[in-house]
């Protein structure tokens, strides 16, 4: 087989064994599920706080309307918010707006 053909072969991973596989190979910890739920809760609270504010940027409103944001969408939302008044920092260098924290 050529290298191209080998790269196009699918990987057969059973979803119910995926966490055990990742933990055994030390790619993540056993508590990653609980850590992810805490992160999802923080994202949900930040979305609710941001939706209460009046954002003139249509792209911010579109991103906030997505039910479950992934990493890249959160990063894009953060960059858009940084360019607005919410992205201003105080003397210490922290964001002064609650939605940016």
Structure explained in plain terms:
There is one protein chain. The protein is mainly α. The protein is about 55% helix and about 0% strand. It is elongated and about 55 Å long. The N and C termini lie far apart (about 50 Å). About 5% of the residues are buried. Belongs to the CDK5RAP3 family.
Secondary-structure map with pairings?
Layout: H1 3-7, H2 15-24, H3 32-52, H4 58-64, H5 71-82
InterPro entries: CDK5RAP3
GO cellular component, one term: endomembrane system
Family: Belongs to the CDK5RAP3 family.
Number of domains: 1
Question: What is the overall number of helices?
Answer: 5
Question: Uncertain runs with pLDDT below 50, 5 residues or more?
Answer: none
Output the helix-strand order.
Answer: HHHHH
Fraction in beta strands: under 5%
Nearest-angstrom radius of gyration? 19 Å
Write down the overall geometry: elongated
Largest sheet: none
Number of strands: 0
Distance between the termini: 51 Å
Structural class: mainly alpha
Q: Percent of residues in helical segments?
A: 40-55%
User: Could you tell me the mean pLDDT?
Assistant: 79
Pfam family, one: CDK5RAP3
GO cellular component, one term: endomembrane system
Family: Belongs to the CDK5RAP3 family.
InterPro entries: CDK5RAP3 (IPR008491)
Which terms would index this structure?
101 residues; mainly alpha; 5 helices; elongated; CDK5RAP3
């Amino acid at each position: 087989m050529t290298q191209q053909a080998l790269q196009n072969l699918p990987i057969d991973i059973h979803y119910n064994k995926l966490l055990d596989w990742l933990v055994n190979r030390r790619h993540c910890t056993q508590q990653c599920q609980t850590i992810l739920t805490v992160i999802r809760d923080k994202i949900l609270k930040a979305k609710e706080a941001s939706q209460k504010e009046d954002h003139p940027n249509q792209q911010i409103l579109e991103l906030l309307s997505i039910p479950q944001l992934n990493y890249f969408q959160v990063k894009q939302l953060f960059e858009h918010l940084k360019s607005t008044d919410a992205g201003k920092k105080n003397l210490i260098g922290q964001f002064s707006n609650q939605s940016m924290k």
